[in-house]
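Quick one: co-fold with zinc ion.
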Amino acid sequence: MNSVAEVFLAPGAPSVQRCARCGTVRDELDAAPACPECGGLLEILHGRPVDASGNVLDALSIKHAFAQHCCARPLGYASGVWRFESIVMPSAGSAITSHPEGNTPLLSRAALSRWSGVNGLLIKHEGHNPTGSFKDRGMTVGVTQAVRVGATAVACASTGNTSASLASYAAQAGIPGLVFVPEGKVAVGKLAQTLAYGARTLMVRGDFDACLRLVQESARELGIYLLNSINPWRVEGQKTIVLELLQQLDWKAPDFIVLPAGNLGNTAAFGKALRECYALGLIDRLPRLVAVQAAGAAPFAKSFREDFATRYTVAAETVATAIRIGDPASWDRAVRAIRGTNGIVLACSDEDIVDAKVVIDAAGVGCEAASAASIAGVRRLVADGIIQSADRVVAVLTGHVLKDPGMLIELHQTRADFANANRPIVIDANVAAVARVLRETQSLSITP
Ligand SMILES: [Zn+2]
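Sure, here it is.
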């Protein structure tokens, strides 16, 4: 692992954006979405944290500052993102646009421990964020940056959780939000939140690639700030999933952190968070990162089995729509994250993912389908003997159960062949009918 001098700039130095490919360094307030020299992805580097007098903060002082911020008012610091400001966006000042977000729970449920095979399995549920997904952590930082660079509008090409989050934070910041989607190829349910929060939804005559091209050209020519998945400030916000869970564990690193993997933005962000925490001495050992893909969208898992010798793209197909991605954008950063943590990448079938989702939902926790990949992955690695039942494991759920109501209605009401369907029951309006249902329910063997 890298030393603190390799991971951070000089103590108190202003943050910069650096091209991961050619090393070109740009000012932190440069609004270009990628390296203007070579087109490579940008990443953020911060100065090593210092106190008000410019003295380097040791690990204990940094932890103390984070803890103080937990209960602070005004709300900016009470956010589960902005409490970690010193290693997310130290110069944000009064520009912060915060709901607040984060502060998501670390849950444990006997049913999930039993099903996964890990005694003390912990669930970090990012569906508890304000718009129902982890995207809010990156978006609060991305929209704050848009305010700082004086953007006239913010935009993304996405049909899912990113659009909803962008719409919410753009509304709060008072900046117009634009969402680009291919005309006629979008499920209205996915867009409901985006429309409600007031983002302008542009139905582009063309496919998704045409949307991506158009949003990029518009950003260049019209001064619109791009908040797509490769925006480096969104990565800084997403790091706080790991920072917060480590803080919840009193900075005693677990053995494994398991997450769903599609575009690989979180895998990259988790790797960066762990690198920085270790370099600052906030943790004294590194957890192994486990990235779980859906079998029908698993180019990264295939590459992992060959020690990342080849970068693959696939035609992606899975019920886990939030990770249905065939050509992940944050590939190189994610390779670094997996290598740097002795990590693991695997793929689970749609059947395994749906099985996991049913158990998570029935435990009263609930999650979006893609989220369930993480717990399906834990169960697989226990079966393979890689995770032991006594290991300390945190599995991340990325989205709320209500993100995909169509799937729930199909499973429980429409589909004829689903064994665990919990069908609604039509009854006459009398107590005897209720009593009959109650008797039947109580006679069923209930597995908590
Ligand atoms: Zn470059």
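If it helps, Residues 106-132+235-406 form a domain with the Rossmann fold fold (CATH 3.40.50.1100).
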